[in-house]
Inverse folding.
């Protein structure tokens, strides 16, 4: 029997790379990223992986990359590519709001639409890497939580729209995770970076693997992954 095939956007680094790692032994991977070189390097780490190179904010490039894939059946689509950061809300320009929503929301909707037929053919699962900021907003900067609240709405609506086609849609909401994105955020807070303060990418990947490998009678709809006592007590 052939292995289930899963496309992971943002598969070159951080949470996306950990998801690829968690699936690599028993899945055929399609690894997404913007740089052909980085994506090839990532693919080289796994026994069965091929590249999906596109800047997902570029509609035409995304269309072309999906057409070039020529995939007929897709068991899983994991949307991990995302951006965070930026300035406080009073300092945020319309362009900053646009670029955040382009990747975190519009690209997710677009890529899901483009891959609907192969997802339906495989009765596949779509997993959105959302955030704790998609459940509760606070702190500084409105555009990131606003984009993740929008992603949550998209996730919930897609779940009901695609149920009839046999496609499951899961939302995974991690707290702060030790990745390049987190390093940038902490640098912006002007404090030292201690990886031990944050969730491990592999812990989020384990939750994504659960959503993708759930038996057909059940669907993981929304998972919140928070730091456990071992992280908080450090
Ligand atoms: N880290 C956290 O604390 C945290 C917490 C909660 C939720 N999240 C969410 O988890 C997801 C992954 O975050 P991360 O921490 O793993 O981020 P990361 O370390 O910054 O990695 C981002 C990934 O997204 C890809 N990417 C960025 N812009 C892209 C674009 N325009 N087109 C295609 N791919 C693009 C990057 O590929 P390149 O190699 O091409 O740059 C990279 O693989 C995001 O949706 C984020 O909002 C993160």
């Amino acid at each position: 029997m052939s292995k289930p095939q899963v496309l992971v956007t943002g598969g070159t680094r951080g949470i996306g790379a950990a998801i690829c790692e968690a699936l690599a032994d028993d899945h055929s991977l399609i690894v997404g990223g913007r740089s052909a070189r980085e994506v090839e390097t990532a693919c080289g780490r796994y026994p069965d992986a091929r590249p999906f190179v596109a800047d997902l904010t570029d509609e035409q490039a995304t269309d072309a990359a999906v057409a070039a894939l020529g995939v007929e059946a897709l068991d899983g689509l994991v949307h991990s590519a995302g951006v965070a950061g930026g300035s406080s809300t009073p300092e945020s320009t319309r362009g900053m709001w646009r670029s955040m929503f382009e990747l975190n929301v519009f690209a997710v909707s677009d890529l899901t639409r483009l891959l609907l037929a192969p997802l339906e053919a495989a009765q596949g699962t779509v997993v959105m890497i959302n955030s704790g900021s998609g459940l509760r907003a606070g702190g500084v900067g409105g555009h990131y939580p606003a984009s993740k609240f929008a992603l949550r709405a998209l996730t919930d609506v897609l779940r009901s729209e695609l149920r009839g086609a046999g496609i499951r849609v899961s939302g995974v909401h991690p707290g702060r995770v030790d990745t390049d994105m987190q390093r940038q955020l902490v640098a912006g807070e002007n404090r030292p970076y201690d990886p031990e303060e944050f969730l491990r990418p592999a812990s989020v990947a384990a939750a994504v693997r659960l959503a993708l490998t759930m038996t057909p009678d059940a669907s993981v709809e929304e998972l919140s992954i928070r730091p456990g006592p071992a992280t908080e007590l450090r």
